[in-house]
Design goal:
- This protein is mostly beta strands.
- 6% of the residues lie in helices and 43% in strands.
- Strands 18, 19, 20, 21 and 22 form a 5-stranded antiparallel sheet that branches. It has a 4-stranded antiparallel sheet with strand order 1-29-28-27, with no helix packed on it.
- The chain is globular.
Length: 386
């Protein structure tokens, strides 16, 4: 073999080794040290069949966070009223349409009591469930939106002080429902949002006073998310592509580098990775390098879990029987390696709130097959820094 051929062979081997190393780093990582002792042993509650989503929200205005769990196979919604000490009253079950899949909470009829908007995946509609003064709920109406509604977000898109709704449909649509103010809605605009829109996150990303919508896209070959900038009248500009990420599913916003500008964090359960997009305050974003997740990272909770006043994220790993803590550095990047906490098989969704009023964020996780809600309370003796 000649010198040129040998040199080419060496370069090829080096490229293969580098490629394998990159694949290893992006596919997940093992902790080199034990995770910080942040949480007490969980308190468990029985919920419905195949719980899909959990959301923390004060539903009865007693200043204690409550929990709502969407049970997709149980065709129901579980409500757990918070007592304020980190525990919850016995679960109440609310019947829904077929295969409820997502929800959001806001005051839809102006009575200052939180209401619920729920996507019924199997029925192609959204149920509006109105909260009552006695802490109970009443089904008000159902709004047809089209096939397979998969995610929903509440906001005032037309600046009339009535809450509106944005709904993504499984294949390619974004549907805007404008609130009348009495708990009813009318279908306004329908936009092409594909391919395969998933979760959405609403905020004023360009600081013009109008609510905008960022959408994760779950199609296999897609390497971008979409941004719909609002006009302030319930309509939106043609969407912009924000390059980066791959086959994203969940998306959330937060100021991760503390510069006063909203950033975006997206997860890719099929690629076992997460992406962060740094906002410039004018509606444009620059993506940092993808960082490794565990098996099936999906829902994300942002909060200061390490006591350094820098935002961290906790991720629910749907295929990993765990949640991961990624401590933030304050510049949009995170401490490597991350820390894992075992929570049980098939954790489906995660939410965060201060359930016991001690000033620290706690978390709640639903286990899909076991039909269990686990509540993890932060320990007072948690380390202040990692």
């Amino acid at each position: 073999m000649g010198k040129v051929a040998v040199a080419k062979l060496k370069r090829t081997k080096i490229k293969i080794l580098v490629s394998l190393l990159g694949t290893f780093l992006l596919s997940g990582c093992e902790e080199s040290r034990p995770p910080p002792d942040l949480f007490a042993l969980p308190i468990s509650y029985k919920v419905g069949e195949k719980p899909e989503v959990v959301l923390a929200q004060d539903m009865n205005n007693d200043e204690f966070p409550d929990l709502l769990v969407v049970n997709s196979a149980g065709h129901s919604l579980t409500f757990l009223e918070g007592i304020g000490d980190g525990t919850f009253k016995n679960p109440q079950t609310i019947e829904t349409g077929r295969e409820p899949f997502a929800l959001d909470v806001a005051d839809f009829n102006g009575d200052r009591i939180p209401d619920i908007a729920l996507c019924n995946y199997g029925d192609g509609n959204v149920s509006i469930i109105l909260g009552q003064k006695d802490g109970l709920f009443k089904l008000k109406t159902e709004v047809s939106v089209g096939r397979l509604p998969i995610a929903i977000a509440a906001a005032d898109f037309d600046n009339d002080e009535n809450i509106d709704l944005a709904v993504t449909l499984r294949f390619n649509k974004l549907v805007i429902l404008l609130g009348v103010g009495d708990g009813t809605f009318k279908v306004a605009e329908v936009y092409q949002a594909g391919p395969t829109p998933a979760y959405l996150s609403v905020d004023d990303y360009n600081r013009d006073g109008n609510q905008d919508i960022a959408i994760a896209l779950n199609a296999v070959k897609v390497r971008h998310i979409k941004m719909f900038l609002g006009n302030g009248d319930g309509t939106f500009m043609p969407p912009k592509k924000i390059t980066g990420g791959r086959q994203s599913s969940f998306i959330i916003h937060h100021d991760m580098n503390l510069d006063g500008k909203t950033d975006l964090i997206a997860s890719s359960p099929m690629q076992d990775s997460l992406s962060i997009y740094m906002g410039d305050g004018n509606g444009a974003f620059s993506k940092l390098d993808d960082f490794a997740g565990e098996k099936g990272p999906h829902n994300i909770v942002v909060g200061d879990f390490t006591g350094d006043k820098i935002p961290d994220i906790i991720v629910c790993n749907r295929r990993g029987a765990s949640i991961s803590l990624l401590p933030g550095k304050g510049d949009g990047t995170f401490v490597y390696p991350h820390f894992n906490y075992v929570v049980g098989s098939q954790p489906r969704s995660i939410t965060g709130a201060d359930f016991n009023h001690d000033g620290m964020m706690d978390i709640a996780v639903v286990l899909y097959q076991k039909q269990i809600l686990e509540v993890f309370i932060r320990k007072m003796n948690a380390p202040q820094r990692l």
